[in-house]
Amino acid sequence: MLEISKKTNLLEQSMYKYSLQDVAEPNLYRDLYSYDDIPKVAFNHRRVPMSMPKEIWITDTSLRDGQQSVEPYTVDQIVQLYKYMSKLGGPFGIIRQTEFFVYSKKDREALLKCQELGLKFPEITTWIRANKEDFKLVRDLGIRETGILVSCSDYHIFKKLKMTRRQALDTYLAAVSEAFEAGVMPRCHLEDITRADFYGFVVPFVNELMNMSKEAGIPVRIRACDTMGYGVPYSEVALPRSVPGIIYGLQHYSDVPSEMLEWHGHNDFYKSVANASTAWLYGASAVNCSLLGIGERTGNIPLEAMVMEYASLRGSFDGMDPTVITEIAEFFKKDMGYTIPPMTPFVGRNFNVTRAGIHADGLLKDEEIYNIFNTDKILNRPVSVLLGKASGLAGIAYWINQNYNLKGDNTVDKRSELVIKLKEWIDKEYEDGRQTTLSNDELEEKIAELSNGKLGG
Asked: pTM to 2 decimals?
């Protein structure tokens, strides 16, 4: 049978409807996941088309998945992070939603205080156990949407839940039915999708969800969860590891609209950002992230990374304020006591800092030579250097000009007497056995001495 596709507007063969394959033994994809070896990437040379949605956005799980991996946040910290996300996301809500726990008194207090702020974005959603009491709790809190766990790989269905695929599917559908009865929109977290039998379980299950959604008149959001970070962004990769294949399949065979499709990834194999961008490119409107990438094991998709990816793909921040990323990083460090690894892009202490003398010489001539973009303008983080054994005259001159905000005729260069004298002192420090970089306080004290108080005095 031929019909016009609503997605491509082309005449296409009507889609084969996949049925649940209720197997007796779990499919653990042992050829890919042998456990005693690194997971393998298999190719089948099948390509699917890119299909970026008209609108893309970011959702946040800092207060749910992120908070599970660190010391619990206080109510005041949660409220402040919520404010930061609203400011960062801008008036058009590019950071569209964030999810909360609701189980403890503290969780509910934080949620209510954030509601009282009256901010349009990010929309407050929740994550709950799939039972009537929790759905009622969400409804009574005035929450429109909640996440529920619907694990979809045989690792979870057979090994953790001790169910068959049919039993798992029926259990999940019953939970969604209860959400509908409570008048709550369910967001189904398809846990471990990159180890799931895509056509034998995932597609038939999501088809049932879409049918129930139409009958109830309530949308269902599908969150494809790369729980273990096994997804890969390459073209022509075979399922279940193919991010393009998963997104395409959910749209093409289960009719999930882009605005109801969300990607949630982890960084176990350093692919979380690339996979999230790929999900956008192939049809998912939303990518689910965490501030600073904080989350289970190696972490979630860093939210700040996807802010930059958004601007790169769209050519604009569309109202987002990226300088807030620096404010968030400072809040985590100073108010929450969180140690950010110094080499972390955009937020780490050293991300736009150089120690090498030859790089500093380039910065002194034109910072664009060695800085990734105008970090001062975009992130309120001016490029800087650390002074140490390898800094050289150019690095010292650059550091002085930046630290004392010297402009125009007041700047020093690598031929300045002050710079030469300071280098002689630095060289002596390292000749005497010093191993660490020099602190700002040490440098400022020595500069005050060498300049007779004209600088730093």
From this structure: 0.91
Measured in degrees and rounded to the nearest 5, phi and psi for residue 5 equal -75, 130
Buried b or exposed e, range 161-187, using 16+ CB within 10 angstroms: eeebbeebbeebbebbebbbebebbbb
The one-letter code for the residue type at 257 is P
d(CA 183, CA 177): 10
- Amino acid type, 360: A
| pLDDT reading at 307 higher than 70 | yes
- pLDDT of 381 > 60? The answer is yes
At a CB cut-off of 8 Å and minimum separation 6, what does 280 contact? 52, 53, 56, 263, 287, 309, 313
Contact present, 395 and 389 (Cβ < 8 Å): no
From 363, 429, 445, select the one nearest 396 (Cα to Cα).
363
Q: Mean pLDDT over all residues of the chain?
A: 93
- pLDDT for residue 15 is more than 70: no
Report the alpha-carbon distance of residue 192 to residue 27 in Å, rounded.
13
Contacts of 252 (CB under 8 A, 6+ apart): 7, 15, 48
Give the integer Cα–Cα distance in Å for 169 and 171: 5
Reported residue count of the chain is 457
The dihedral sign for the CA sequence 349, 354, 355, 360: negative
H/E element, 278: helix 272-281
161 three-class SS: coil
For 158, which DSSP code?
Answer: I
- Contacting residues for 411 by C-beta, under 8 A, at least 6 apart: 397, 401
| Residue closest to 394 by CA, chosen among 421, 360, 359 | 360
DSSP assignments along 16-65, one per residue: PPP-----SS----TTT--SSSPPP--B----------S--EEEE-IIII
Q: Is the peptide bond between 91 and the residue preceding it cis, with omega within 30 degrees of 0?
A: no
- Residue 369: C-alpha distances to residues 237, 240, 412 (Å): 37, 42, 20
